[in-house]
Amino acid sequence: MQVHRASPFLAAAAIIFLTLPSVALSAPPTAAEKRADREALKAALMEVLQRTALKSSRVGVHMQSLDDGTVVFSHNADELLNPASNVKLVTSAAALASLGPEFRYDTEFLVEPDLPTDGKVKTLYVRGKGDPSITTERLWGIVAELWHTGVREVGDIVVDDSWFDAERTPPGYDQEDSDRAYMAPTGALSLNWNAVAIYLRPGSGSGAKAVVEMEPPSDYFIVENQLSTGSRRARRISVTSDPAGPQQKIIVRGQIPEERGGAVSVWKKIDNPPMYFGQTLKQMLSTRGMKVKGKVKAGVTPSKAKMLYVSQSETFDVILKRLNKLSSNFVAEQLLKTMGAERRGAPGTFVKGVEVVEQFLERDVGIPRGTYVMKNGSGLNDANRFSAAQVNRLLRYMYDRFPFAPEYLSSVPIAGKDGTLKYRFEGSEAVGRLRAKTGTLESVSALSGYVTSAGGERFSFSMMANDFAGRAGPIVAGLDALGAAVAATGSSLGPSNAVAALADNGRAPGAINDVAARIKTYLDLGKQRDQRNIGFLRTAWRSERDPAVRAVLAESLYQSNPHDYLGARTLLDSYSATGEVYGRLKEVARVLSVEVPGVSSMVELAAGGNAEALARVLELAGATGTDAQSQQEMSEALGEVARTAPEELVVALRAADAGDREASTTLLARALVQAGQADHPFWKSLRRMLGATDPQLASFAKGLDSTLSQKVAEAKAPPRSPDGLVPVQVVAPAGNAPVVPARTGNPPEARTAETRPGG
């Protein structure tokens, strides 16, 4: 019997023993072998910096062995650069150190003067302490707990947001005017990351009004539904979210295809967190069966109020995973204010939070104040500066601190497995071995974290690239090559071969008929809109070297799950207006008798206001040349974008290459004439932008107004070619301003258009 009782231990010991030979049979590298590995790694890393897109950007790199402390590679490591979302590594480290791994948020529900005995609560006070993890599901559970305390009737609901100050967004957010979910404001009382889901479904038939539903539903929202059901397969929708006092106005425009199955969801930020929380709570109380006779009001909880129920957040490690794996700006800024309130006293402010972080960096990590710039906790926009050496120093500090290391390391994305690295490093030794935080802004890309090489050595690293021109895709590929090289150290493949294997060197284009046959297969998979195809499509995309086929694979990935940011990111990085992509896909379209692959998906993203997609659409307009069919397709596309994202289109035109802008305005003018609407949303938005506070934007809008007026007049009575279409002559104007013709009168339909509030 003793043997049987001991057998679990013996079995465990046997399992451990069986795992040892793979290490024990491989003798540790000699000093000479280690030096050779290091030299090979340095050579591979320098090759990446000199031969990839990284060579044309400002790059800082710092890599250090966690085993012996040796600096393995350093390049401009002390230069202060914009780290983008790598700042979240700083915020999460300071939060762990100052609040502790065991920290939980409290959200308090109180009544005054006494606890109810008859089930009737005159006033229910809700006092928030900054919990960033309350969702609709958790709030429903809270409502159930209130029911079980005996509450059956509530008068007023007072939402107490005083644990934080009234400043909703930190420095850096003011550089971007957007209603996107990643711009969500802070709030001591917050719900669903202070964003809302808008679900859109086709109506009963073509031409019918589509269905717009809010999740969660409540009186907080004022919905203006201008969405129709269309017969076209592609969707062209625009959703805007604007503050409306104590409420939020949601405006939905465009067209959703009749044949599309299920609902399309769009996430937007809200602007009044406590009222969003309070109105949703009111709705849920009513749904649960409790009467709510009063109103939702903002206020402060009286000192004599009695505690009815306290809801505690999840453990800190779960919150940190939300922060770093998904790169949540909202959670980062909530943590910053929380540190301020908990360590400097309520109300929590961004300034107090930064002070706590600075104290941690100087006292604990050894990074003095004044050697870096930190204005916010998320890294959004142009507000922060750190060096690669400073970030690497922080990483090493956290790795060596047992009370913090497990939660910290587990919060960071794993290469090829999850988070923002789920689809990066595929096919390399880095998969599963590398954990790192990504960072992406316009002209900024960063990657910092940890990696265990194939040879068993552990490293920390920080890599930042700033001020590069063009797309982020080639820069990201360069950073990934650096990481893959470190991961391959000590393997039979070696760093240099790992870099070569990960590089996309392309291949000679195949015969157009063969390429068309392969593309048709991938187009058919994309049409299925089945997420189960994503694994296969990802593998095919990673191994494919033909840029045109790769672009179609990217579109099919996007179509398989349009809500996945990473799918959209892949499409934006893979599709271009070059001859090898758009040019060859136009040939494929003729062979298959279909629309040019990829264009519809790019327009779909652009119609929703995606800035990168808008830039691609304008590049495509410039690449149509004199092809009548391509001109017609791009004219229709620009007309749809002008209807659903008019202001974003103006901004994109301002930033476009002069030649692309000239071609785009000609095609846009044709679309506006064909629409024939005096109150077209584009004319309204353009007139409103004439009074923009930015004088350069106002000047551009004035010039664009004149240019389009001239082109519209020409499009109404143009000389006709044999095919009935107006050929587009792409003539690049001097400078960056649009061509302003001598005659500046507006078309009749434009003169009568009235302005409207910004959307």
From TrEMBL:
Molecular-function GO terms, alphabetical: serine-type D-Ala-D-Ala carboxypeptidase activity
Keyword terms of this UniProt record: Carboxypeptidase, Hydrolase, Protease, Signal
Cited InterPro entries: Beta-lactam/transpept-like, Peptidase_S13
Annotated EC: 3.4.16.4
Biological process, per Gene Ontology: peptidoglycan metabolic process; proteolysis
EC category name: hydrolase
Domain of life where this protein originates: Bacteria
Span list, region Disordered: 735-759
One Pfam family in the UniProt entry: Peptidase_S13
Signal peptide: 1-26
Family, similarity comment: Belongs to the peptidase S13 family.
Protein's name according to its UniProt entry: D-alanyl-D-alanine carboxypeptidase/D-alanyl-D-alanine-endopeptidase
Organism lineage string: Bacteria, Pseudomonadati, Myxococcota, Myxococcia, Myxococcales
Gene behind this protein: dacB
